[in-house]
């Protein structure tokens, strides 16, 4: 049996995602295990590297694919990053257990996201440039949220689903929405990238999680004021979009209706702790309004017009979670004009499912793999490597 490797190292730790045999039963088991924790016992084929009372040197290194652990110079284990992980999310290291730490030595700490090498990652060929904006209104505008240093992610999107014939013919327009980075050199490279490819809208503030909602407002404004789109879609730069499938889905709805399409959460409760914690002062209610998950949703232009109008009048409530904010705004619009809420799991929030409309948490390699499968096989299939 061929052993799997991560960054050239043998992956020693059994990883639950490898147990999927693509059957419906295994997918259900996988989701259940994600909710309640791993149920299968992990087997080890190497001697335990620690002994009571014995000193050891443990080295933890972060690669592009995952973490690697060495004890006394011997490679002990490697394991992949969790789905959707970005290396800059790692802000600290904690140690638990009955271990006495004698000293800590840090060397070669990364100064930026590992994808920050634009000279290597940006393929500055004219075929990847955005086509000019059409003079006529477009059917769909796709606003893609991205971070300043996500050069690899944007390049993968350009080379994959942004090559769809509907985008190349300008019937659909897609743009990245990027805020300024705290590092001057990132902003300089970003501006060069924007000038060359013509597909980036730089919003004039420093990138911050609590201000992401302003990018959503900017997407709405661009969609209604710049391209006069019939429908406005928001997604992330790690979301793969089947453009034709999305349009077919919204065209099923009557033309005269306002709608909100996506993977919609009903009676979703705020988290009161962790990365996405919301205080009672920020949100005193026990439930959020119905809202579509942020990696991919669509609204009609009248809803986007309402958002832009309320924002310009300083009446728009800005909540730090942009997808919940959209749910609030649609709910407010719904009080004066009925909105049809259309829920579909094919706007996949936690990765990819076959026959997807959108797939989230896709790495640049996965983006290219999925695009190749669409082109060569004509079928929307997932690529389960990272």
How would you explain this protein's 3D organization?
The strands form four sheets. Strands 8-7-6-9-12-11-13 form a seven-stranded mixed sheet, sandwiched between helices. The protein has a three-stranded antiparallel sheet with strand order 3-4-5, with no helix packed on it. Strands 10-15-14 form a three-stranded mixed sheet, with no helix packed on it. It has helices at residues 24-36, 118-121, 151-159, 165-168, 184-197, 212-226, 243-251, 301-312, 322-334, 364-377; strands at 5-6, 9-10, 58-62, 66-71, 74-80, 140-146, 172-180, 200-206, 231-236, 240-241, 258-265, 291-300, 339-343, 347-348, 358-359. 28% of the residues lie in helices and 21% in strands. Residues 13-22 have low confidence and may be disordered. It is an alpha/beta fold. The chain is globular. Strand 4 (66-71) and strand 5 (74-80) form a beta hairpin. It is an enzyme of class 2 (transferase). Its cofactor is Mn(2+). This is Hexosyltransferase.
Query: Number of DSSP strands?
Result: 15
Helix share bin: 25-40%
β-strand amount: 15-25%
What class would the helix/strand composition place it in? alpha/beta
- Ends apart, CA distance between termini: 20 Å
